[in-house]
C-alpha cells in the first residue's frame, strides 16, 4: 500500500488545466484546422479538388473546403502544386450550423453558446447518450477518452449515460446506416424535451468516406436536428471538449487564432 501511495504522489496532478490554463501542446504530426490561401491558386487549376476522396473541395471561381466532408488526409496537399492548403495545430473546429463548416479563406465561425434558458438547464449538468450509428469506433474511442483522468469530462458536469430516459441529449457518431436510422429516431424520441444533438466526426456530419452510399443517410441532420457539429476523422478529444464547452458558454474567445499557432 505504501508503494501505491508513493507512486500516486510521484505522478502528481495529471488533469490538464485547460480551459483555465494554456491548452496542451499537441504533437507535430497532429492535423488541426486546415487553412486555404486561394490567392496561390492558378486559374483553372483543380488538382486539389480532383484528389479529394469526398469532394470536400470545390473550385468554382473561388476555392472552398467543406470541413464537414474533410477526412484530414493529405491527398489535397500532396496534389496542390502551389501549397495553397495546409493544416494548422488549431483544434478548435466545432460550429453550430452546417454552413459554417464551409471554409473560404475567412476565419472559421466557432460555435456560439446555447440560449440563456438552455444554459441554465444544461450548463452545470449535461447528460448525454452516445449513439454509434454505423461508426468505425474511432470517433467513439475519442469520446470515451474524455472520461480519463487527463480530460476529466465529469469536472464540467458532463457525463455519458446508459439510457436516453436519463439524458439531456445525444452525441452521435457514424453516417447513420439504414439499419440504425430507426434506432436513432427512437432514441431521440425517448429523450425528454428540451434536448440537444451533437454530431461528431465527418461520418455523422456528411457521411464521411461513405458519402452518397445508398445504405447510409449522409449523416445525422437528415434524421434528427443537430445543435453542434464537431468535424474530424476522427476529431481530437480536445476538439470535442472545446465544442461541448462552447455550447455551454464555458468558452467565448471568438474566432481568434491560438497563441503561437
Task: Give the uncertain stretches in residue-range form.
Answer: none
Radius of gyration: 19 Å
Structural class, judged by helices and strands?
Answer: alpha/beta
Fraction of helical residues: 10-25%
Q: Give the C-level CATH assignment of the domain at 116-247.
A: Alpha Beta
Query: H/E element string?
Result: HEHEEHEEHEHEEHEHEH
Task: Set down the secondary structure blueprint.
Blueprint: H1 2-11, E1 34-36, H2 47-51, E2 57-60, E3 62-66, H3 75-79, E4 85-87, E5 102-103, H4 116-122, E6 126-132, H5 138-145, E7 158-160, E8 169-173, H6 178-190, E9 196-200, H7 202-206, E10 228-230, H8 237-247
Parallel strand pairs: 6-7, 6-8, 8-9, 9-10
Antiparallel strand pairs: 1-4, 2-3, 3-5
Question: How would you describe this structure to a colleague?
Answer:
The chain is of the alpha/beta class and 261 residues long. The protein has a domain at 116-247: Rossmann fold (3-Layer(aba) Sandwich). The chain is built from eight helices and ten strands. The chain has helices at 2-11, 47-51, 75-79, 116-122, 138-145, 178-190, 202-206, 237-247, and strands at 34-36, 57-60, 62-66, 85-87, 102-103, 126-132, 158-160, 169-173, 196-200, 228-230. The chain has a five-stranded parallel sheet, sandwiched between helices. The protein starts with a helix and ends in a 14-residue tail after the last helix.
